[in-house]
What we know:
Number of strands: 11
Number of helices: 2
Strand content: 25-35%
Largest sheet: 9 strands, antiparallel
Shape: globular
Order of helices and strands: EEEHEEEEEEHEE
Distance between the termini: 35 Å
Amino acid sequence: MAVEEPPYEALIQDAPFELRRYPSFVVAETKINGDFDTASRQGFRRIAGYIFGDNQGDDGQSRKIAMTAPVTVQPAADGWRLHFVMPSQESLNTLPTPVSDDVTLREVSTHDVAAIRFSGFTTQAAIAEHTQKLKNWIQQQGLTELGREPQVARYDDPFTLPWRRRNEILIEVARR
């Protein structure tokens, strides 16, 4: 079964790099303390709880929300921020309210992102290596980073063989 991903327009394709323009979308997110792996596990469980029914609609009922990809983790001032992009047919007005105070909904406006795709595990070394490659590419393209921390985007479940995994580093850049 296909899992929805946020749509984007590819402005530059230079494999394994891309410059993308994403239209606005809504995310469910949580903030977690701890190391990357701990934050990934705990954050995933929180957001998965929300989409599997730990929520309340205007009618007082909970409902399931379709799973999407990627799961994105980003360093934050107070730990880590993990989010799922909500399905494209959803908006802040249609999504049920999270029951947990640890889960919030927010709209992300249209933005441009430089991306690098890689397979394997998302270890600290792999993240650092691919982040540096992407930063070098951004500079070569004459793009300007917006100063936000890079995001680690993972598209596959943890049971996918490492060489078949799709991971990306995403860095927001100034609009072209």
